[in-house]
Amino acid sequence: MIHVSGLNKMYATREGNEIHALSDVNFSVADGEFITVVGPSGCGKSTLLKILAGILRRTSGSVEIDGRPIDGPNRQIGVVFQAPVLLPWRTVFENILLPSQLHGAITDANRADARKYLAMVGLAGFEDKYPNELSGGMQQRVGIARALAHDPALLLMDEPFGALDAMTRENMNLDLLRIRAASKKTVLLVTHSIPEAVFLADRVIVMSPRPGRITEILNVDLPAERRLEMINSAPFGEVVSHIRKYFSSQGALDA
Ligand code: ADP
Ligand code: MG
Description:
The strands form two sheets. This protein has a six-stranded mixed β-sheet with strand order 6-7-8-3-9-10, sandwiched between helices. A four-stranded antiparallel β-sheet has the order 2-1-4-5, with helices on one face. By secondary structure, it is an alpha/beta fold. Helix content is 34%, strand content 24%. It has two domains: 1-54 and 158-255, 3-Layer(aba) Sandwich (Rossmann fold), CATH 3.40.50.300; 77-151, no CATH class. Strand 1 (2-12) and strand 2 form a beta hairpin. It has helices spanning 45-53, 92-96, 98-102, 108-120, 136-148, 166-183, 194-200, 234-249, and strands at residues 2-12, 18-29, 34-38, 60-65, 68-69, 77-80, 154-158, 186-191, 203-207, 214-219. The protein contains eight helices and ten strands. The longest helix is centred in the C-terminal third of the chain and has 18 residues, at 166-183. The protein binds adenosine-5'-diphosphate and magnesium ion (MG). Magnesium ion is lined by residues 45-46, 158.
């Protein structure tokens, strides 16, 4: 479904220097896969996600979705950022319909989808609330429903749970897996949490410190239906400690 090859990204700074953010990134994602990308802060995760979302230009290389190059925002793609950036003067329902509105007029099918995904994220009945009436976790759920509402095949998520407390985060991880199973989406999620990356993924893409390269792509050998107690299992621990060892050898222990 996604095919990335020879991807490079250089940023020009205001001082006239160049920052090499991504270096020769290559990977593919199959339909229906859950892929996580883990790497230390500043390694280019958000850069990669923005290029996939079509909101940032690549310097070189090719990025395709279903065989077509990604050159701009695409209906096939929904994006969830770390902060849900909801419009405070619009209700939950109006916020969720915003991407559909930007892609054209809102249809009855859009409204039905918005209701369906709002229920899927556990917020049925919250249609007419305003963002400031919701907790941080609930606002992020609205962000997820908004990304799903125009029914994209691919969901891109940039550290979507980074701002949440540990317990809310665990619940959101489980809910995300449930939503993904129910909606049959392909998901690519970036995080700097190694356990989160391993818990969620079919495969984990490990990135080096800047300039971000892919150092490894690991299969996670856990049952498709994840349960929290699996974080105590041997296969989980092996993948986590493998990635930790690599990051600590790179001096990126905090990742
Ligand atoms: P991550 O999401 O992994 O923390 P980013 O993709 O945000 O990393 O950033 C990768 C590198 O590129 C960082 O060193 C960052 O400072 C730099 N960078 C990001 N955006 C810009 C920009 N617009 N201009 C210049 N440098 C940038
Ligand atoms: Mg980032």
